[in-house]
Amino acid sequence: QLQLVESGGGLVQPGGSLRLSCAASRSRLEYYSIGWFRQAPGKEREGVSYISRRGGSTTYTDSVKGRFTISRDNAKNTVWLQMNNLKPEDTAVYYCAATVASGITLRSSEYAYWGQGTQVTVSS
Fold this sequence. Notes:
Distance between the termini: 40 Å
Order of helices and strands: EEEEEEEEEEE
Largest sheet: 7 strands, mixed
Structural class: mainly beta
Number of helices: 0
Mean pLDDT: 96
Oligomer: single chain
C-alpha cells in the first residue's frame, strides 16, 4: 500500500519561499496523480495543486497561481511544491495525497492515500 511522507515545512517570513517534498514508498508514485492540500486552524481542507501521473497536467487554486509550482520526478518517487512569495494566509498544515481518478481533481474525497502533513507558518 502506498505511503506518503511530506517534508520541508517550517517558519518563514512573508515574501519568503519553501519547497515541500512528498516522498512515496511501498509503491511506485508513477501510478498516481498527486494533489497538495492544506488545512488552516478552524478551516476546511483546501485543494492547492494537482499534477497528473506523468506531469503533463497541473492545476492550482486561484489564491496560489503564479506563486506555487508543482513538479514531480517519478524516477525519484517524489513530488514537490515550490512555494514563493509566501503570505500569512498560506499558513496551514500541508498534505500530499494520491489518487487513481482520471482527470484533474482537487476533491479530497477522490484521494485514497494521504501523508501525515507538514506545518507551514508564514509570519514576521
